[in-house]
Amino acid sequence: MAENQTKPKTQTKLKLVIDIIIFLVFLITMDPHSSGITIHEWLATSAIAALVVHLLLSWDWIVQITRRFVGRVNGLSRINYILDWLLFIDGTVIMLSGFMISESLLPFLGISLPRNFVWRPLHDLSANLFLLLLGLHTALHWGWIVDAFKRYVFQPIAKLFWADREKDLTA
User: Fold this and answer.
1) pLDDT tens for residues 67-99?
2) 101 and 119 in contact (C-beta within 8 Å)?
3) Cα distance from N-terminal residue to C-terminal residue, the chain
């Protein structure tokens, strides 16, 4: 039984860390002029791995809601599910269009693609849409985010300070 309680706790911690990484990468890559195109492309490409881990950690929920989507599922879960699919589709468009307009990553790998004037506006539009969808996704998960931060960030920090204070009081 202790193993079952440890697994969700460990998984929640991992999800929180992965989500923070994804969020920070998203902030950095949203402005390629500030980070530079090379960092933008390599960081965004490496974020694909973090997104895959995020999906794998949520896989049980995805399967469960997919099975029940047509039948009995509450409205908020239905909205969340649709929003998650929109994020996935939009993220795929961002990644595909990003590869198609690559100025650093693909040339470094020896891959040359013909220029097409459709990919840049599509990449920009899908990135801006992703920002909106991510804001909605964050709002829907705000309770989980706050709870996870309290439990795994703020409480451990507070315990460090209280432990030191208790030692001082008992000495």
Assistant:
1) 777 777 788 888 988 999 999 999 999 999 999
2) yes
3) 38
Paired tokens of 43: 């960081």
Dist CA 154 CA 41 (whole Å): 33
Residue 43's Cβ-count burial label (10 Å; 0-12, 13-18, 19+) is: middle
Residue type, 3: E
How many Cβ atoms from other residues are within 10 Å of residue 28's Cβ?
16
pLDDT band at 171 (very low <50, low <70, confident <90, very high): low
Q: Tokens in use for 130?
A: 């992703």
**Positive or negative, the Cα torsion across 53, 57, 60, 63?**
negative
Whole-angstrom distance, CA of residue 26 vs CA of residue 1: 38
